[in-house]
Amino acid sequence: MRPDRVTLIFSILLVAAFTSFLLHAWLVERKESGPPMPVITVGEVREEAGGYTVPFTLTNQGPSTAELVQVVASLGEESGEQVVDFLAFGEEVEGAFMFRQDPRHGKLTVRVASYKLP
């Protein structure tokens, strides 16, 4: 093979590799830009000695990390609060709230109240 063809092929491969790297970096940066999206999923109420337990799963469906995610629950005059220190993209955290009243016979609200950006 002639030296000028080797140089041409090498140059094309080098430009293609550099372009691929820039495209990949741009897509990753674009994917990671956006707010966190903490989402609550409430599980089945369990009756236990002395009260009722309401399990939940907190998932970050947004592309960025959230800190100090505040989860609050209320049932009539009872309420509770939990804080998750750190929630990365795709991460799940499980927890539970406990009530004296039966949540199945009242108006139960479980929601994300706030979070902080790192």
How would you describe this protein?
It is a single chain. The protein has 118 residues and is an alpha+beta fold. It is 25% helix and 47% strand. The protein has one helix at 3-31, and strands at 38-42, 46-48, 51-60, 66-75, 78-87, 92-99, 108-116. The longest helix has 29 residues, at 3-31.
Primary descriptors:
118 residues; alpha+beta; four-stranded antiparallel sheet; three-stranded antiparallel sheet; rod-shaped
Q: What are the SSEs and their pairings?
A:
Elements: H1 3-31, E1 38-42, E2 46-48, E3 51-60, E4 66-75, E5 78-87, E6 92-99, E7 108-116
Antiparallel strand pairs: 1-3, 2-3, 3-6, 4-5, 4-7
Please outline the major beta sheet. 4 strands, antiparallel
The share of residues in extended strands comes to over 45%
What letter string, H or E per element, gives the SSE order? Answer: HEEEEEEE
Oligomer: single chain
How far apart, in Å, are the first and last alpha carbons? 56 Å
Structural class: alpha+beta
Compact overview of the structure:
The chain has one helix at residues 3-31; strands at residues 38-42, 46-48, 51-60, 66-75, 78-87, 92-99, 108-116. By secondary structure, the protein is an alpha+beta fold.
